[in-house]
Amino acid sequence: MEGEKSSMTEQSVRPLMPSEDVRPAGLPAVSLPQTQVTQVEGSTFCVSGIHGDIRPGRAEGLFVRDTRVLSRWELRVDGELLEPLTVIPAEPFEQRFVARAPVREGLVEPTLIVERRRLVGQGMREDITVHNYGPEAAGIHLSLTVEADFADLFQVKEGRSASLASVAHHQSGNDLIFTSERGDQNRGVRVSSAGAVTAPHTLTHRVVVPAHGQWSASVTVHPSASGEEFDAVFPTEQDIETTEPAQRMHSWRETTPRIEVENTVLAGALATSEQDLGALRITDPEHPEDDVVAAGAPWFMALFGRDSLLTSWMLLPFAPSLVLGTLTTLARLQGSGVDLMTEEEPGKILHEVRHGADLSLALGGDSVYYGSIDSTPLFVMLAGRALQWGASAEQLEPVKDAVRAAAAWIRDYGDRDGDGFVEYQRYSDKGLANQGWKDSHDSIATAEGVQAVAPIALAEVQGYAYAAYRAVADLEDFWGRPEVAERWRSEAAALKARFHEVFWMPERRFYAMALDGHKQQVDALSSNIGHCLWTGIVAEKYVDDVVDTLISEDLFTGFGIRTRSASSQAFNPASYHNGSVWPHDTVITAAGMQRVGRRDAALRVLSGLTDALEAFGGRLPELFCGFSRQDMPVPVPYPTSCSPQAWAAAVPYEMLRIGLGLDVDLTRGRVCAEAAPKFFGAVSVRGISLGQKGSLDVVADEHQAQLSGIPEGVQPR
Question: Which DSSP symbol is given to 701?
Fold first, then answer.
């Protein structure tokens, strides 16, 4: 409303004043005509056109708990739709849509400007202000047409319409009320605006806007489930700055380190990522103290095991509370029994959680689906990394049993046939056919394009298992069971030896993407092997062969690393997993290169990602097309890529960590950092948490890195 200040707050990432322009060579921006606007707050999101309207028949709407509670939201002045002028972003949950009304009789140009300030969170609030720049008072009918179809998120994503026959609608005073009962699911929504006149599906304000004056009103949207209306998080009587979403965002920024970067592209990207990740955080209402991140907007605003774990890994130096929230939340939902439909098994970490109106559309037909082969080892890996970065015994105690159960699952359930490798095969057609991070139905194919048959042992999953065994060994040492720790280290060593023996392709000097159900190599060159570098399972004498292949023109586009090599028969640069570039995949590979001592290759990859950041305006999408930079001078967008997306938003933070060579292992008394790459310029990161050991500051330029706050007994290098 008028007089309220914006909820935008000072960010904790700033560009340093550069001594020279420390940026890439000045790429042209990606041509991305904006046709939709997405707003996010926790698991609530709204997708609309740039005019602010939600048009029926499109993949748009207000979604709460995986259900579309508004399928139509059209604002008109005197029966005419508005002409959009601009969209002004603030926080991820807040946007202002500016438009003008059609020209009025007797005038040459329109004189009415309409602003819609929309706030999204467990419902919606829209503050509408009409400015009259004309010489005469304007009498207008401002009407809002509303529909609710209560479609499940999956129906909307796949372009399937929901039947309106099961939706009841009536008016009461200033309210429009919609309800739907489908089986045992009862959903509703109430749309209200003080002073409005109601008619079926319509709220109308009949007002006179004074000459050179303005008029304002608010419309609120209150969803409900099982007859209980959700609490409004943006009540009209409360200042935006004091609301829970604004306070959560402020707290998020206050608890992250203070970062200053001379490279203006990276600085801007970090600031954008900080905001996006703050908005993507969700919580279990019964455990509001534990933050996790949703996978991404608009279609994955839910907890995904793999996504939350990899995002948390990259954010650990900058947001350790998110790591602990992720671990404890996933531990609570860890598998305890065997269910073939949902693929639950004892110790297994979930793939995804859904809360839609029609759970029959969810994977496995239930709210929690466990069909992920990599979430469980990644869970153990993250717990071990939290220990290295200073997590205390008290913080790790709640996940101790879960870590042990997860490690046991890898060994006892993950290895389906006793050959020493971790494989997947779905239990029914309700589940995912491919259960690694490349989970498209056609993503695991040979160099000749032949699809692998299950059970499939992915190369990177063996790396995750290797790293998980080493992590649980460190944790068992920490928990006072050294004899158990040694058994896990032996398991890790044996797996590493087996992996090289079976997955190595000597004629190609690279590792196979997977083993198929016949134990034959899936021989495509792929980015999966970058994850093997990252986990340390690659044999030391062959790391240069692997790195050189990953940065060859066959896999490295100049902006990122392709999921599949261009020489493969199944290669398609505009596919989802068969030749595209995923920023998180690329940065994990760069981290692997840094780990094995190939900083030259890691920085080459980071330089390409920095150029991609510049082209995308500081916000990397979930993925982009895998065309060569020689053919396409800018990265080509993938049409349905999520943005913001959690692990893509975490990439600039991991780029910063890799560029600084920053690593911490307090269990072994080591902290290290290196001079920043020249294209970063000067960097300052202050307040990196080391748990009870205090905090670390890093100041670096292209000549040196300085560390302060190093705990006693820890050796810098």
Answer: -
